[in-house]
Amino acid sequence: MAGAGATVIVPARTPDKAKTALAPFAGIEEAAMDLADPVSIDRFVAEFLASKRPLHMLVNSAAIMAPPGLEKDARGYESQFAINHLGHFQLAARLWPALADAGGARVVSVSSRGHRRGKVNFEDPNYERRPYDKWDSYGQSKTANAVFALGLDERGASYGIRAFSLHPGSVLTDIARYLSREELMAMGIIDAEGRVQREGPAGSKTIAQGAATSVWCATSPQIEGLGGLYCEDCNCHSACNIAPRQICKPIDRLQHRRSGVRRRHIPRTWRSPMGDGRGSGRSPLEA
Fold first, then answer.
1. What is the pLDDT of residue 33?
2. Domain residue spans in the chain?
């Protein structure tokens, strides 16, 4: 994206680690942000909005995967749901004015085929009354990612804001830090010698290949005017078996309640890209 002329901003929980990873690339801005900390998210957003820049693409890709034991953030929310979903929801809601000012924006929610491992448990998302299962928890957060894209697209389309979710493929990065060698072998990601497996149905993609669908969703002219789609391998895909209308509203209520984003917290004024005087109304994410 930066090579194509885009201004790219990378917020990261550990800026020094991000600086090292981004060193080979020119023209990228770095910033500090922790998705588990709502104050940190608000601080990042406040600085961005103060710059008065429109936001044409928002790619929500940061995540953790399968902590072996139940972990919670400072608010008491289960860590995978808090970081993988609630943090991104808060970020998008706060950035709504900049997205609307773009006159055509896309929000990309990186989900996973892992959404098949677990539905959102609206009665007990934080495992207070049921045994913790790391893959069920991961699946819950990835289902939430996909449903969030559906709900955001439904609300944002009339403002020129479209949303997509996707499965990036199996990519061996630090997201697998909690998995043992035996687990990675059983999943077909590495062989007995620890070599990454690139072939076969479970073969791991390179980082560039894993990022390709996110970039495609954010930039491709093939999906101009579309939204609410689940994508894989740089194409629209039918593998997502979520029934959007049945669970969008319950997850709406849950994410507003859990993230701390309330109607009174969402900026109420922005310049509508449609030039229709809607700038004085509520953000659609309030609905």
1. 97
2. 49-169+205-286
Beta carbons of 118 and 143 less than 8 angstroms apart: yes
List, in order, residues 6 or more apart from 116 with CB less than 8 Å away: 139, 241
Q: Which residues neighbour 73 within 8 Å (Cβ) at sequence distance 6 or greater?
A: 36, 37, 79, 82, 83
pLDDT along the chain (287 residues), means of 10: 94 93 92 97 98 98 97 96 97 97 97 86 96 96 94 96 95 93 92 88 86 97 94 79 46 57 43 35 54
Neighbouring CB atoms inside 10 A of 287's CB total 11
What is the predicted pLDDT for the residue at 242?
Answer: 52
How many angstroms separate the Cα of 20 from the Cα of each of 17, 25, 243, 260? Answer: 5, 10, 41, 33
Task: Give residue 113's pLDDT.
Answer: 84
d(CA 22, CA 213): 20
- Residue listed under structure tokens 């406040």: 46
| CATH 3.40.50.720 is right for the domain spanning 49-169+205-286 | yes
Strand, helix or coil at 70? coil
The Cα angle at residue 217 between residues 42 and 137, in degrees rounded to 5 = 60
Q: pLDDT at position 93, please?
A: 97
The pLDDT value given to residue 176:
93
CA distance 150 to 162: 9
Q: How far apart are CA 251 and CA 256, in angstroms?
A: 8
Distance CA 98, CA 282 (A): 14
Torsion angle of the four alpha carbons 148, 154, 158, 164, in this order, in degrees rounded to the nearest 10:
50
Is residue 32 helix, strand or coil? Answer: strand
- Placement of tokens 């934080």 in the chain: 126
Q: Which residues belong to the active site?
A: 138
